[in-house]
Write a structure and sequence with these properties.
With 197 residues, this protein is α+β, with helices and mostly antiparallel strands. The protein has helices at residues 3-10, 17-24, 108-117, 119-145, 148-158, 168-175, 179-194; strands at residues 28-32, 37-39, 47-53, 55-61, 67-74, 78-79, 94-97, 101-107. Helix 3 (108-117) packs across helix 4.
């Protein structure tokens, strides 16, 4: 249960198994069913999670009430409402399980305990939040600067093998195109792979 998160942590900071185990005692193991809302727009985010198994989509709703995918999180990813985790602001995103998921959840009230327990965890969480915030900003920038095809290829690179697991409507929404356009885009890319010349 802890091997994935332990490997993730060790890739980011120097820390012993004992120290990791000491920190993980403050987490709980949670399962989410496919389609379940982990966090809804208008709720407070009270946790930091780590996905052991499964896939999550974060969605936003525009002024016209249209829901679109903002980001995806799969195995070996931390997830939380980064933008306002420390400020107690209401979430402007939904977090939805796209598959049955298993996650380690650190309640927000235990975060301070872990940070006091060992300074290494402060360094870890600073890195996690910086990575997540960078991804949020890069995502927002890519919407403005990249074509749908470039964003699709970038998504494929970021989550190898995951695109087959994500419903078409979420991929299309993420790219800002209609599902029919996504089908055409996929056919075009498949054609390029079959005829590289």
């Amino acid at each position: 249960m802890y091997s994935r998160v332990a490997n993730y942590i060790k890739q980011r900071i120097e820390i012993s198994d004992e120290e990791i185990e000491e920190g993980l005692q403050y987490t709980t193991f949670k399962k989410y069913l496919k389609g379940e809302y982990i966090l809804r727009i208008g709720e407070y985010c009270r946790f930091i999670g780590f996905i052991n198994k499964g896939l999550i989509v974060t969605t936003t709703i525009d002024d016209n009430g249209k829901e679109s995918a903002f980001d995806f999180k799969c195995e070996n990813c931390f997830f939380t409402y980064t933008e306002e985790l420390m400020n107690n602001a209401l979430s402007h995103k939904n977090f939805i399980a796209l598959e049955d998921c298993e996650a380690l959840i650190l309640p927000k009230e235990n975060l301070e305990k872990i940070l006091k327990l060992n300074l290494k965890f402060e360094s870890l969480f600073t890195k996690i939040l910086a990575e997540d915030l960078r991804n949020v900003l890069m995502n927002q920038q890519s919407v403005k600067e990249l074509s749908a095809e470039e964003r699709y290829l970038s998504l494929e690179k970021m989550y190898p093998g995951a695109l087959q697991r994500i419903p078409v409507k979420y991929i299309a929404g993420y790219l800002g195109i209609e599902p029919e356009s996504l089908s055409r885009l996929r056919r075009r890319l498949a054609g390029k792979q079959n005829n590289p010349g």
